[in-house]
Amino acid sequence: MAKLRVGVVSPEREIWSGEADMVIAKTVDGEIGIMPRHAPVIGVLVEGGLLTIKRGDGESDLVAAVHGGFLSVADDEVSILAELAELGSEVDVARAKSALERAQSSVEGGQDGENAEDATAGAKRARARLRAAGEEVG
After folding, report:
1. Which of 19, 56, 109, 121 has the smallest set of CB atoms within 10 Å of its CB?
2. Long-range pairs, 7-10, Cβ under 8 A, ≥24
């Protein structure tokens, strides 16, 4: 079966590269699944979304928290250019839970304006990090 060539990068580093059977990402237009021979497409990734890379051949799926960026597909090559990304295996769960609690407290505390937006974005990032790590998030 044909494979996709996948690369996930952020401004700081290459997050992952390799072959996969399928890539699933959340874009501003909805969730998209990419398989070999997919039509060329460019998508804008949502803030606080998950990226799932199904490697196949008995290997476990890779899950990453992705915070903004772009997805490009052409000729069985998928490029994920993320503003910020973290593999689930790299997430410090205790730290992410703490960040979520702080962000939720700020949101519930009636912050307004830019502070409320920052707290909401922080909560989205923390939830995505926890989901990428395999944690249940309410």
Report:
1. 109
2. 7/77, 7/78, 7/79, 7/80, 8/51, 8/53, 8/64, 8/80, 8/82, 8/85, 9/79, 9/80, 9/81, 9/82, 10/69, 10/81, 10/82, 10/83, 10/84, 10/85
